[in-house]
Amino acid sequence: QVQLVQSGGGLVQPGGSLTLSCEVFGAPTSYPMAWFRQPLGEKQELLATISWAGGSTTYADSVRGRFTISRDNANNMCFLQMDNLTPEDTAEYFCAARRDNENVWLWWGRGTQVTVSS
User: How many CB atoms within 10 Å of residue 107?
Assistant: First the structure.
């Protein structure tokens, strides 16, 4: 059974930085990963994706240039480095994984709250 365990998040001032982590247990052989967020009362937004080997990444326009997705396959970890945070980044953040040959994000972390406020 695949499980994604998230850590990080919390309260940060505008302009600050946070790093979210996601550890994968029971991982399949190869799996792309992604980070999503969902502000309270709003729809979910795909923020960033990373391929299994880490050579291919994509970003939403809202975070490109401020957020960086990375992974450490030796330790089954994925990270989201978030810089220059604004109050609009306040949301519940989720990591997700899928099989390499499928397009559905099958496995999800439980989410972690990020609040950007002075």
Answer: 21
DSSP-assigned beta bridge partners for residue 19: 81
Cα–Cα dist 64/57, whole Å: 11
Q: Which residues of the chain fall below pLDDT 50?
A: none
Closest CA to 6 of 30, 37, 31: 37
Q: State which H helix or E strand residue 90 sits in.
A: none
6 in Cβ contact with 18 (< 8 Å) = no
Neighbours of 116 (CB within 10 A): 19
CA dihedral 6, 108, 15, 65 (to 10 degrees): 120
Report whether 17 contacts 82 (CB < 8 A).
yes
